[in-house]
Amino acid sequence: MASHRRPKQPSRARVTMLTTAAAAAVAISAQAANAAPSEKPSKDAVKSKVDALYEQAEQATEKYNGAKEKQEKLQKEISTIQDNVARGQQDLNKLRDGLGSMAAGQYRSGGIDPSLQLFLSSHPDEYLDKAATLSQVSGQQADSLKKIQDKQRQLAQQRAEATGKLKDLSATRTELGNKKKEVQSKLAEAQKLLNTLTAQEKQQLAQAEQSRATRGTERVSMGKITPGSGHAGAAFSAAQSVIGTPYVYGATGPSSFDCSGLTSWAYAQAGVSIPRTSEAQGNAGQRIYSQSQLQVGDLVLFYGDLHHVGLYAGKGMVLHAPHTGANVRYEAIGNMPFQFGVRI
């Protein structure tokens, strides 16, 4: 007869485990179904983040400009020192050649003891004249030796100075590269955010930028601002001539500018050389802390670290190169944290 066995029942522990797993799966499914999709950041939120990134990029830009200026200065100094060393080496070689010729002449004429030469000489007076000349030659030889020693010390100092500046140049080039990467990183991050916007939203932001520039121009026009006279007036007129030119980091014109590139270029057109970076421009003249005392063409510095600069346009307005994505334009001073003005 066939045996009839009851099927093996699952253990209580196994039933509990399966039940718990099933419940968890149901809960996860429910959460997934009810979870709200991740919200796309609003146009205003994107603009706020992009503006912050542009400001950070401008801070890095001014550090980049400073490193670039230092690199150019060091390269000129090193070139000058190397030229001096080359000329000094030529002078040293001439001194050595002259000393060698002098020593050879003495050797050829000094093979006999001077006292014996005098005893044997048929013309003692003539010999005494020669002896006096020989003494003079020895004095010239000592003088040449001293000149050679002095020149050697000078060349050693110049070579040591060049070596130190070359090390400084290497460090400056590294800093320059790092700051350039930092600027590019901030700008790339900003562009990535802008790419999340729709075409319509991008157009709205562009229109807002254009409207801001237009309002500034209208306010300046209504105020009937005139450039003024002197170097400041000439610099301001030069800056007015490039209104609408795009902002590009590290640029000094005339087809594009960053903030300090615009101000240094404008003053250069007026025949005045001022430092390249905004921070250095803050020390280029008399500081003016009251906005009411500013004159058209004065430099205007913004932010605690002085990473932005423009030209005072009168009536509470500034003419400046704002940031990436914008052009040279007029803007109200109150739109940025004013620190002080500088009269060149």
Radius of gyration: 40 Å
**Class by alpha and beta content:** alpha+beta
Largest beta-sheet characterization: 6 strands, antiparallel
The average pLDDT score comes to: 82
Strand order of the largest sheet: 1-6-2-3-4-5
Beta percentage is 5-15%
Low-confidence stretches: 1-7, 12-30, 32-37, 115-120
> What is the 3D form?
elongated
Write structural notes for this entry.
This protein has 344 residues and is α+β, with helices and mostly antiparallel strands. 64% of the residues lie in helices and 8% in strands. A 6-stranded antiparallel sheet has the order 1-6-2-3-4-5. A hairpin with a 5-residue loop joins strand 2 and strand 3. Helix 6 packs across helix 7.
What secondary-structure arrangement, pairings included, does this model have?
Layout: H1 12-34, H2 43-109, H3 114-120, H4 124-194, H5 199-223, H6 230-240, H7 259-269, H8 278-281, E1 286-288, E2 299-302, E3 308-314, E4 317-320, E5 329-332, E6 338-343
Keywords:
344 residues, alpha+beta, 8 helices, 8% strand, elongated, disordered N terminus
